[in-house]
TrEMBL record:
Secretion signal, residue range per the UniProt entry: 1-19
Similarity annotation: Belongs to the protein disulfide isomerase family.
Gene3D superfamilies named in the record: Glutaredoxin (3.40.30.10)
Any single biological process term in GO: protein folding
UniProt keywords, alphabetically: Repeat, Signal
Pfam family, one: Thioredoxin
NCBIfam families named in the record: pdi_dom (TIGR01126)
Listed name of the protein: Thioredoxin putative
Classification via InterPro entries: PDI (IPR051063), PDI_thioredoxin-like_dom (IPR005788), Thioredoxin-like_sf (IPR036249), Thioredoxin_CS (IPR017937), Thioredoxin_domain (IPR013766)
GO CC terms, sorted: endoplasmic reticulum
Species whose genome carries this gene: Entamoeba histolytica
Domain Thioredoxin residue range list: 9-124
Length: 127
């Protein structure tokens, strides 16, 4: 129960109006181990491709605000270089989906539809 409230507090503090959560070294593992599907965009603010992806990614985040099984998040690799290195990030933007410790790289076209499809394909079936 305590973990739930800690996660809820972190979510309220770090989520913006579009439902996009900003991750950092202090909260990454909490979200990763939340039991939810975690989609993470690793980006750099100066990156042109990242800037072009931003509105699309925000739309994806908005689409999943009511889905309790999914968290849409991002990591600023300029601010948290070590965190990005831990996850093998070598180019920007890189989008990974996490289910616990396992991750899978998004490699399709960067459209709202493809990103949503990728997320839904990676949500574990409920028993």
């Amino acid at each position: 129960m305590r973990t739930f409230f800690a996660l809820l507090l972190i979510a309220l503090v770090s989520a913006n109006s579009e439902g996009l959560v900003s991750l950092n070294p202090d909260n990454f593992k909490t979200y990763q181990n939340s039991g939810k599907t975690l989609l993470v965009k690793f980006f750099a603010p100066w990156c042109g491709h990242c800037k072009r992806l931003a509105p699309t990614y925000e739309e994806v985040a908005q689409a999943f605000t009511e889905n309790e099984d999914v968290i849409i998040a991002e990591v600023n690799c300029d601010d948290y270089r070590e965190l990005c290195q831990e996850h093998g990030i070598r180019g920007f933007p890189t989008v990974l989906v996490f289910n616990g410790e396992e991750s899978k790289k998004f490699q399709e076209q960067r459209t709202v539809e493809e990103l949503k499809k990728f997320v839904l394909e990676n949500v574990p079936a409920k028993n």
